[in-house]
Amino acid sequence: MALETAQIQNKISATFSDIPFVYKQERDILSVEVPADKISAIILFLKNDPELRFHFLTDLCGVHYPENEADRQMVIVYHMHNWYENTRIRIKAYINGQKPEIKSIASIFPTANWMERETFDFYGVDFVGHPQLKRILNMDEMTSHPMRKEFPLEDGGRTDKDDRFFGRTASNR
User: Fold this and answer.
1) How far apart are CA 127 and CA 18, in angstroms?
2) For residue 47, which of 1, 132, 120, 108 has the smallest C-alpha distance?
3) Angle at CA of residue 110, ends 26 and 30, nearest 5°
4) pLDDT tens by residue, 46-99
5) Cβ distance 64 to 149 under 8 Å?
6) What angle do CA 54, 59, 63 make, to 5 degrees?
7) 29: three-class secondary structure by DSSP
8) Quick count: other Cβ atoms within 10 Å of Cβ 20?
9) Which tens digits make up the pLDDT trace of 15-34?
10) Which of 14, 46, 9 is nearest to 25 (CA)?
11) Which domains does the chain possess?
């Protein structure tokens, strides 16, 4: 029997009955908003439950929403896949944008190691308990995090660039 969305919701809600989950069906993927302090327990449950079997972490990434209140300015998004039933689930954990931190899941999914490093590098998220949290793509000397929305898209001090050559003029900016 195929794994149904209602079955996934019921199992999560029954196991973590003290947590008010927010469920949304976004196209063909169930999306679940979870408290950040429970992320390890929930990810471990989804992986180890004999019926759910979300054994594959497809992706882990960050998103920055600076217009939200401080405790919801960053979200860490986990995509997991049950290959037996070809079912996917998206887990979202909102965290504070001023001091972004969440527990590492690298001990649960070793592939999360590099994904967490990339999210740290680009968003500045501290993955507590990560075995080697350091920049992975940007220079170690870099002090900012380029995927955060306060990061400037272009270097305003450049003198070697003429906007006319890029199709940009004062009238179409």
Assistant:
1) 25
2) 108
3) 10
4) 999 999 999 999 999 999 999 999 999 999 999 999 999 999 999 999 999 999
5) yes
6) 125
7) strand
8) 9
9) 999 999 999 998 889 999 99
10) 9
11) 5-150 (3.30.460.80)
User: In the Cβ-directed half-sphere of 9, how many Cα atoms lie within 13 Å?
Assistant: 14
* Main-chain phi, psi angles of 123, to 5 degrees: -120, -15
Tokens of 149: 């929305």
Whole-structure pTM value: 0.86
pLDDT of residue 14: 96
Q: Locate tokens 């075995």: which residue?
A: 131
Helices 39-48 + 5-15 axis angle, to 10: 130
3-state secondary structure labels for all residues of 99-163: CCEEECCCCCCCCHHHHHHHHHHHHCCEEECCCCCCCCCCCCCCCCCCCCCCCCCCCCCCCCCCH
Single-letter amino acid, residue 11: K
